[in-house]
Specification:
By secondary structure, the chain is α+β, with helices and mostly antiparallel strands. The chain has four helices and five strands. The model has no long low-confidence stretch (mean pLDDT about 95).
């Protein structure tokens, strides 16, 4: 869709995510968020097809999401030394299915909503470097 930011990004009409896409299959694309949007390791899992939420997923999309989540959680925890990975799915900013993954490290003092509400960021350079490491790890 021409008016959807995520669709436009997938079609190269918006800025590429830091480090490019980490993982892609027939249903999903995974990338690091721009540094200003969250701590190092904040990822977006985006549907390739334009739809809003879980209710609009096909059976194939629904079934494959679990495999993608399992692999990306494992590698994100490993490479960021995260104790937890929070998943946030709202679709208010862009009406296109996207789920945010935000790693919380052992050294982070806040937890839960307090952690997610922090004004936290990283550099796009650090995000791109982590994206490359995650891309390599996802191939294994």
């Amino acid at each position: 869709m021409d008016t959807c930011f995520v669709c436009r990004k997938h079609n190269g009409l918006e800025s590429a995510p830091p480090g490019g896409y980490i993982y892609e299959d027939e249903h999903w694309m995974v990338c690091h968020a721009p540094g200003k949007l969250g701590p190092l390791g904040t990822l977006f899992i985006e549907s390739k097809r334009h739809f809003l939420d879980y209710a609009e997923m096909t059976n194939e999309e629904s079934a494959s999401l679990g495999d993608v989540m399992r692999k990306i959680y494992h590698n994100l925890k490993l490479l960021t030394e995260a104790e937890r990975v929070y998943q946030v799915t709202m679709m208010d900013g862009a009406p296109h299915f996207q789920s945010w993954l935000v790693p919380r490290r052992v050294t982070d003092t806040e937890k839960g909503m307090k952690f997610l509400a922090r004004d936290d960021s990283c550099s796009d350079e650090d995000a791109a470097a982590l994206a490359e490491k995650l891309r390599e790890a996802m191939k294994k």
